[in-house]
Predict the 3D structure of the following.
Amino acid sequence: MSSFRKISGMILLAGSTGLAATGFADVDPALPEYTRASGVSGNLSSVGSDTLNNLMTLWAEEFNKLYPNVNVQIQGAGSSTAPPALTEGTATLAPMSRNMRQSEIQAFEARFGYAPTELPVAVDMLAVYVNKDNPLSSLSLTQVDAIFSATRRCGGLEDITRWGQLGLTGSWDNRDFALYSRNAVSGTYGFFKDNAMCGGDFKASINEQPGSSSVVQGVTESINGIGYSGIGYRTSGVKVLPLSIDDNSPVFEPTPENAESGDYPLARFLYIYINKHPNRELDPLTREFIKMVYSRLGQEVVNRDGFVPLREPVAARLRKELGID
Amino acid sequence: MTDTSPESGIVGRRPSLLPDAQARKKLRLVRSRKDKLYRWGITTAGFGVVFALALIFVYLFYEVAPILRGASTEITASYQSTFPAATTENLLLERYEELGIEYTSSGIVNFFELDDGESRQQLQVGIPEGTEVTSFAAAESISAINAFGLSDGSAMVVRHGFELSFPNDERLLHPQLDFPFGETALQIDPQRQALRHLAIESAARGPETTHIAAETADGRLLLSVLSSRSNLLTGAVTLRQLTHTLPAVPAGVVTMLLDKSMRSLFVADRAGFVHYYDISNPAQARLLSSVNAGEGAAITAMQFLVGSVSLIVGTEAGELSQWFLVRDEQNEYTLTRIRDFRSHGAAITAIAPEYTRKGFVAGDQAGQIGIHYGTSSRTLFLDQFITEPVAQLAISPLNSKLMVKGGSGELSVASLWNEHPQLSFQALWNKVWYEGRADPEYIWQSSSATDEFESKFSLVPLSIGTLKAAFYAMLFAMPLAIAGAIYTAYFMTPRLRGVVKPSIEIMEALPTVILGFLAGLWLAPFVEQFLPAVFSFLLLMPVLMLGFAYIWGRLPGFIHARIPDGWEAVLLMPLILIFGFICVALSPWLEIWFFSGSMRQWFTDIGITYDQRNALIVGIAMGFAVIPTIFSIAEDAVFTVPRHLTQGSLALGATRWQTVMGVVLPTASPGIFSAIMMGFGRAVGETMIVLMATGNSPVVNFNIFEGMRTLSANIAVELPETAVGSSHFRVLFLAALVLLSLTFLVNTAAEIIRQRLRQRYSNL
């Protein structure tokens, strides 16, 4: 038992230094402390994003510590599962790694008459990963588009099929690509398609992986691999490339500072959608959960999971909009 | 039997143990009843199975059937509009389908109830004193941005919107107008000439930029680039405007359109030409080409499909065609005619694109309405709608309401059912020319995060992938399983057989998800790293075995005597293991000697694409899953060949090999054949292995070193996450139907062939 504690303590320590080394931001000290409310019990269910799955689980754990009578259930198959679940009423929280589509909002409105409420809860950065032995130092989005896309909508002049076209030499000169991608139903896929590929199409030869970690796993296993996933999935087997908008712009590392300033081109909000009637208060269970998410406790969890926490001004505005201050 | 017993003769008078006549009758009755019962029972069960299978087919058809329906509309309300048709510049429906929106040339925006046309609110755009509206332009409908071109060379840009409130829990819309560039008109033409034609569009992504193109009264073509930047702290907007003069177009401009990527301007004219300007660098904008889109007929209407990539061109003759820019190898774009739609036969007067799909509605001079869809080239509806020419058309963002304004100012509101226009036989099974592609292709790319995405539902890559996976699995499994079955059943000693057969059959119980997992995470990287080992093993192993057999035959008799008959195969085991080890150990050296260091790279150099998770891996992994099925049935078939046949053959002097080839195999062939077909059916339907051991890449080829995406894996990946009832959902059911039909056909053919073979060899 004691040795287990020792080892887990060491892992935690190693983990925290690792996080510090990659430069994750600190949680905004201005965020309010969460105070436990009384009379909260019942079932809370969440259906949605795979990217947010870990985060939701961690939040649920914290929430359970505060309210042992609350039963939280979490499913994380993909963002596309969230809107139907919220519309059908099978979920009270719908975590998504992209905005809802017009058609999804319309389906919700058709049933309830009002739109679902969108709550940004954390900032994620999509990182482009290559194998750890890859000497490449950076990429522009135009190059990323020419590597992944069959349509090259971002204006790349030629299709990139060899690492040599990115300026690598030696054994890399004529080495081809192994492209790793998420599957079409994930929000990450859609976000990447929209922002890194200017809305174009993926090549047919991409390897569609069922989860973010299998993308990273794939890149680890292939020397010529390149793939994209949330920054939270970075491991020691892969290298994260800094990105620039186009060939003439400066490159930016995926750091919290660059995400906040908007310089890193593939930063995005992660959302939880809820069903809030415009004229009525939130039910106590959802209200307390959201309140916890926007407290220092909740945002520390965000930080711990490798995402970028929100700052107090944003959190305060959202709390105010929901009337849960 | 009992009467032959020795006691029966002695006792004699004991009553016979045979049933008497009555009992026999009773027994016969019972027997025939049982017989009937079983016959009925089995027949019912058999028909039950057929019925259940038919039900599956029926259910799948039921889910797929809505695809085949076209579109239908029904007029729900008709009334006279407040404004005459000639003054209507733009007609729109809002997304809740409560209100209609009408932009008029007097600068009034009228928001009216759809049911009776009563005006809810009329808002003034605020056209400056002393000027009048000379032209009008609308950006993509979803952005709600509209612009009025004025007689003094300026333009008013206005956007409509709604504020929502919920008094008494009922939704209430408050129409609003706002002015993204301020309430004063923007000066487009420094020479203050009236703007005869106008186009406006905002950038889809990147910095906030809006383009306004205008043709002035004296025939100049201007392009204004407006970039706005809002201060995060104060919220103040600073606006920068740069106006460029573009090369002029011939007279007779009908309409102008700007695209959302800020790269091109299209100008249609009365002579039937579409002029394409490259404006990606506005200061050096140039006229790249002019194409004869009307082929002699004047162009009367032109609109973008959603996403502003495809142009729909309607002509005086009623022809409708789709055009977009196709990039060639030199990165030059040419405006290309992609497809034609069914002709209206009367001049096209209005085109309204759908908001979230690549479809559009067209109205013509004769009062007909046509509902067409780009990707699938379908015309879903084309019929007389009103009795006068169509002046304006609007479709709701939900694609469920239609509004038409006739030449006399009469408004007709209609309900619309048009759920699955993007599916047709052509779109599912033929090559389709998708937006942005250089050629028509087979593509499966079903969904994305945005609504303007063009869904690509070609079932060809999936079907090819299914066959490809099954083919390579059979290539691996068939020789091993059948040869193994023959050896086990015919040559092996019963003791060894008693071990071998159950252990191969127990492989069947191995969960396929574990096989797939191992193949994807361990085998795939291993094979990539030791490619020469894999090939030398596969190619040299048969040679090695034959060589060993030859040597064994030459060995002196006393060694033979030490190995009992039927145990020879055991001798091969260490040999195979040692050889496998040697192959792996030699692999790096082989790479250095023959493949300049890396066989993987050598493939790339000679132009063969190699994916880590490829058909070879799937072939091996799925081969393992299929081998027990084939082996077990084929072994039974060989084993049950009657002994009198083989012994007869041997007695006549045939060798064991001759007996196998001449007697055993033909007799067992129906069984072996059905074993193969069972294996093939299993390989076609197998899901988890292909899901995990391939990259699920929907490619259309049979390259053993590339992956595939199969029908079953595709259903497993996508079905849980599609919206129920959507087109994507129905296509996946169609894929299931295709899969079921495929296995059904294969099994039926197999059964027929098996019956024929059995008849042919039954007289042996």
